[in-house]
């Protein structure tokens, strides 16, 4: 079956964002991936809600198997700073409106991502 429910599909690569520029809709938009049991996030997103939506395509009502999420992070890069920024953004959103989790980056956010601005610094 095209949806992999017959066991014919062992790996499905789905980008979090459409297009080469990273702009546009999620590659998983509209997909029900209940037949999947493992999600591997290859890079952190500046839009945490997009990651949550992608994981939600696997962990759905009717999912029969236990699920696992694996997040790959390059430690000697900007990626740990992005994860730290995501955690701050999610915490801020839980205290205010949910839409603020995907608000645009401000200068303090940008500095945090680059390792400054009072956040954790990336190793040189």
Automatic annotation (TrEMBL):
InterPro entries: ATP-helicase/E3_Ub-Ligase, P-loop_NTPase. It comes from the Eukaryota. SUPFAM superfamilies: P-loop containing nucleoside triphosphate hydrolases. This is Helicase C-terminal domain-containing protein.
């Amino acid at each position: 079956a095209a949806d992999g429910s017959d066991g014919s599909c062992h790996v499905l690569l789905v980008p979090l964002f459409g297009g080469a520029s990273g702009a546009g809709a999620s590659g998983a938009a509209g997909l029900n991936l209940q037949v999947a049991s493992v999600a591997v996030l290859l890079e952190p997103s500046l839009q945490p809600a997009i990651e949550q939506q992608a994981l939600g395509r696997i962990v759905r009502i009717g999912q029969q198997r236990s699920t696992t999420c694996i997040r790959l992070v390059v430690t000697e890069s900007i990626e740990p700073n992005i994860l730290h920024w995501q955690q701050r953004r999610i915490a801020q959103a839980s205290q205010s409106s949910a839409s603020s989790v995907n608000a645009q980056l401000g200068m303090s956010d940008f500095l945090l991502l680059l390792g400054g601005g009072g956040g954790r610094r990336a190793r040189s």
